[in-house]
Amino acid sequence: MHIRDLARQTGVSPKTIRYYEQIGLLPPPQRAENNYRCYTQADVERLRFIVGARSLDLSLREIAAILAISDHGEAPCTEMIDTLDHHIATIDRRIADLQALRSLLIGLRQQGDQNATLWEDCVCALVRDRVSIAERNAGSDRA
């Protein structure tokens, strides 16, 4: 099949397919007499794996590592599980950070008074002073 057929079957643009070939995620395709790229069903499956992995937010480097194991005839399941575990831990940290930020924003919002004097006792002053306090704390941590 030609690149347009591979693109149609996988939902990946020809430009992206060529890029994946360039960086080694897809092997160089066979060429027809007219020098057109010719792909196989194995290329379709490999590209579908790449698309699925990208949809899970795996990086191209992570995908390349998994595919390299497979290309050596080994099952990449352990690498995939380790990668998924790493992503789960990262997401858990991001969720905790976002929850802490949400609590902070709610606290600032509750302290804020819409009728306060601008830059003195309004919510904008609370935000400004929070940065000043954080800078002072960072400076005392370095001392």
Give structural notes.
This protein has helices at 3-10, 14-22, 41-55, 60-71, 77-111, 123-142, and strands at 30-31, 37-38. It is mostly helical. Strands 1-2 form a two-stranded antiparallel ribbon. Strand 1 (30-31) and strand 2 form a beta hairpin. Helix 4 packs antiparallel against helix 5. The longest helix has 35 residues, at 77-111. The radius of gyration is 26 Å and the shape is elongated. The model has no long low-confidence stretch (mean pLDDT 88).
Quick structural overview:
This protein has 143 residues and is mainly α. The protein is built from 6 helices and 2 strands. Helices cover 69% and strands 3% of the residues.
Describe how the helices and strands are arranged.
Elements: H1 3-10, H2 14-22, E1 30-31, E2 37-38, H3 41-55, H4 60-71, H5 77-111, H6 123-142
Antiparallel strand pairs: 1-2
Helix pairs in contact: 4-5
